[in-house]
Amino acid sequence: GQQLNQSPQSMFIQEGEDVSMNCTSSSIFNTWLWYKQEPGEGPVLLIALYKAGELTSNGRLTAQFGITRKDSFLNISASIPSDVGIYFCAGQQAGGFKTIFGAGTRLFVKA
Amino acid sequence: SAVISQKPSRDICQRGTSLTIQCQVDSQVTMMFWYRQQPGQSLTLIATANQGSEATYESGFVIDKFPISRPNLTFSTLTVSNMSPEDSSIYLCSVVGDFSETQYFGPGTRLLVL
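The joint structure predicted for all components is written out below.
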């Protein structure tokens, strides 16, 4: 089946550092979504991308929809302890809302 | 964005029993979905809840095990039937709004089967 390859699997960083994670696929997607999930909560939408090449920011977060439509990245600048959580990328293809999720990137931030 | 609530938020159940999880949205939504998230794993789509008709199940999930209802545009239930310890997971309701193609998630129901 279709898969999203999300990397890295986990990251251990120091507060203040920048973070980058990405998702790639062999399939083309029309929409890329980035979610954050904290312990005991459901995933919360961070950024939605709808066009190839689109670069969108949400505070310290920046995400891009790859030109090939097969990849996306998420950057977090100047990380803080509350950035800790699991970040999921997700892709949607044309004609439906069957969202496919990456395996997640577990972010740990040391103060 | 839609506000989604789920009941119960968590439960501990005995094997062989069934649990019904409710999902309520504060506005009418086009599509509702049920996902499962096993411990330490990503999200897996169980089914699309269709208003007034049978849900559409993904490969590996069947109606007898996960019956779903969606009587209107703001409410859906998922039942986990004849539970076994392998059903211990987080079950998440998700929606796509009428005016947005963006997908939102409820807080999840944490199920532990003993």
